[in-house]
């Protein structure tokens, strides 16, 4: 990773294209000679490959990977959360985004989240049953298997059920996350039952078994949608929420639906980019940023000026994110305008090539986001089907609340709504009416599963990382465009600007001291890890967990990239038989 730190895209933008130019011309393959999976945990990657070996396709493998991540990454995702899956059907050539974002219960009015003084009750907005939206991931698994898969749902869920029953070793990130959320999680009997089975909290190296979750998964496998949203599991969820003072209804559970959305599609330097539409903010922001950046030859710019124009594109896209974006079933979004080249040209014209634009000149307020603890997986199968799936419970271990007997850790996605307009949420950011809660409404998301396609290249890319998801995917796209391979893209150092606060945050080593000084001379505030000399809060040392796979149709080879920041992740490429 350090070889990229001195210059974010120097190798990619200057050296790599020459290597690509040397490739001899070859016929393009019709389908891959194998399959590739990259995910945030090795057990999930192996579960997906197991299903492919049994004759499943990428969609069956997605069910296996997603459900296994729900078992082995409870800090990041689970049956009590939601997600966005971007699917490509190789037979029809069609793309669709399935939206399983959580929905707001009717009881969760903004007033419910205010304390006696009329201020936002932060404990209620992020902890316990009031912080939880109606889960969407179980419905997603059922729909993907039923409408796109080849195998029965029960077969694709079998690896997750087995792992939940037999257990897996607790890894350091999981133990640290529990320690940071222990006070909240141990409030609830259902959570204590799962995480304190031996009279003490989980510790690194313990074999973590979840028999209640295995039973919930088995009911889902046996009965499909009704196995979670009606019947035994639903009754336990409703009783648990009620016992802790929350107010869900049976109709809200049984009425949950996965939404099929038309992806956002645009071109960037010969790439066809297919990405997530609202309620994700990622696709619109990507379209704006990349089309703004088309105005520069990034390879010709030095590191500081390249970073400057990328940051200015980020700044403008995130400003628009705040004012215009929300659940498209509730808010009129000017999507055609925001994703147009004419609009991007107008944004580009406001960028000074040598000076930062102060964010207070782009009037407004900051934007909602998710916590870093989300997860992503990328899959291409031997027929050319592909899936980019991003799923989350929001904060570490979500709400911290498990309704007794379910094993289901509920999300705390209600905090992603603007619960009190103009008041910062858990991450110090604000939202307004477009993202205010209403019954059945889906909160704004940053999840950005994305496909990239050229004649000779197909890529699936995505990452967790809260509001930084979008900029990480942006930098990954720029890396692929410059000729980096999948693993190099996954390892790229990262920087980010989200309009407000008006600062560039960066990982360790993303900028040399000289580049940081040049950016500051242009008027940028650069918030480096641990930095306090310039008044910065100190960015995280590293962030994200990018997972990507690539198919080179000219050489008919597959490759996978898994983020080196996450030791539990894995990418696997191997033959699983010939496509039809």
TrEMBL record:
Reaction equation(s) it catalyzes: an S-substituted glutathione + H2O = an S-substituted L-cysteinylglycine + L-glutamate; glutathione + H2O = L-cysteinylglycine + L-glutamate; an N-terminal (5-L-glutamyl)-[peptide] + an alpha-amino acid = 5-L-glutamyl amino acid + an N-terminal L-alpha-aminoacyl-[peptide]
Transmembrane region(s): none
Keyword Transferase: yes
Compositionally biased region (Polar residues): 545-560
MF GO annotations: leukotriene C4 gamma-glutamyl transferase activity
Record has Signal as a keyword: yes
Protein's pathway: Sulfur metabolism; glutathione metabolism
Mod. after translation: Cleaved by autocatalysis into a large and a small subunit.
Segment forming the signal sequence: 1-21
Keywords: Acyltransferase, Glutathione biosynthesis, Hydrolase, Signal, Transferase, Zymogen
Assembly description: This enzyme consists of two polypeptide chains, which are synthesized in precursor form from a single polypeptide.
Protein name: Glutathione hydrolase proenzyme
């Amino acid at each position: 990773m350090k070889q990229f730190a001195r210059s974010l895209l120097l190798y990619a933008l200057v050296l790599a294209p020459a290597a690509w130019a040397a490739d001899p011309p070859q016929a393009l393959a019709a389908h891959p000679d194998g399959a590739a999976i990259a995910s945030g945990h090795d057990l999930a990657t192996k579960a997906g490959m197991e299903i492919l070996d049994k004759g499943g396709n990428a969609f069956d493998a997605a069910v296996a990977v997603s459900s296994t991540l729900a078992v082995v990454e409870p800090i990041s995702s689970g049956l009590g959360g939601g997600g966005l899956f971007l699917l490509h059907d190789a037979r029809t050539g069609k793309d669709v985004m399935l939206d399983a974002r959580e929905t707001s219960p009717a009881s969760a009015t903004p007033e419910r989240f205010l304390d006696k003084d009329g201020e936002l009750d932060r404990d209620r907005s992020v902890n316990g049953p009031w912080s939880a939206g109606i889960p969407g991931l179980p419905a997603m698994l059922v729909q993907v298997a039923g409408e796109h898969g080849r195998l029965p749902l029960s077969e694709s869920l079998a690896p997750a059920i087995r792992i939940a029953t037999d257990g897996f070793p607790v890894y350091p990130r999981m133990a640290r996350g529990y320690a940071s959320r222990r006070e909240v999680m141990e409030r609830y009997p259902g959570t204590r039952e799962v995480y304190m089975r031996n009279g003490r909290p989980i510790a690194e190296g313990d074999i973590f078994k979840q028999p209640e979750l295995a039973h919930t998964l088995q009911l889902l496998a046996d009965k499909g949608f009704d196995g979670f949203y009606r019947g035994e599991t639903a009754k336990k969820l409703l009783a648990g929420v009620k016992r802790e003072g929350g107010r869900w209804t049976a109709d809200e559970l049984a009425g949950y639906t996965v939404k099929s959305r038309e992806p956002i599609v645009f071109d960037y330097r010969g790439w066809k980019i297919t990405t997530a539409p609202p309620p994700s903010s990622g696709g619109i922001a990507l379209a704006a940023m990349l089309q703004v950046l088309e105005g520069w030859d990034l390879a010709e710019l030095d590191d500081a000026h390249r970073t400057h124009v990328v940051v200015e594109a980020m700044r403008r896209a995130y400003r628009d994110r705040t004012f215009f974006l929300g659940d498209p079933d509730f808010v009129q979004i000017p999507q055609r305008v925001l994703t147009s080249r004419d609009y991007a040209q107008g944004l580009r014209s406001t960028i000074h090539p040598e000076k930062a634009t102060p964010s207070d000149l782009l009037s407004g307020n900051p934007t909602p986001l998710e916590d870093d603890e989300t997860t992503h997986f990328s899959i291409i199968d031997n027929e050319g089907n592909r899936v980019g799936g991003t799923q989350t419970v929001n904060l570490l271990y979500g709400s911290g609340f498990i309704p007794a007997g379910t094993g289901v850790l509920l999300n705390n996605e209600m905090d992603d709504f603007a619960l009190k307009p103009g008041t910062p949420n858990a991450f110090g950011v604000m939202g307004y009416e477009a993202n205010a809660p209403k019954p059945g409404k889906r909160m704004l998301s940053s999840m950005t599963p994305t496909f990239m396609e050229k004649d000779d290249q197909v890529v699936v890319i995505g990452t967790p990382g809260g509001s930084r998801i979008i900029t990480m995917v942006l930098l990954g796209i720029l890396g692929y465009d410059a000729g980096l391979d999948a693993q190099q893209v996954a390892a790229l150092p990262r920087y980010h600007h989200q309009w407000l606060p008006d600062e560039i945050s960066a990982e360790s080593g993303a900028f040399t001291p000289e580049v940081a000084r040049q950016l500051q001379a242009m008027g940028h505030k650069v918030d480096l890890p641990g930095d306090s000399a310039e008044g910065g809060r100190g960015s995280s040392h590293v962030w994200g967990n990018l997972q990507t796979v690539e198919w080179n149709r000219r050489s008919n080879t597959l490759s996978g990239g898994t983020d080196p920041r996450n030791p539990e992740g894995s990418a696997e490429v191997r033959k699983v038989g010939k496509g039809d």
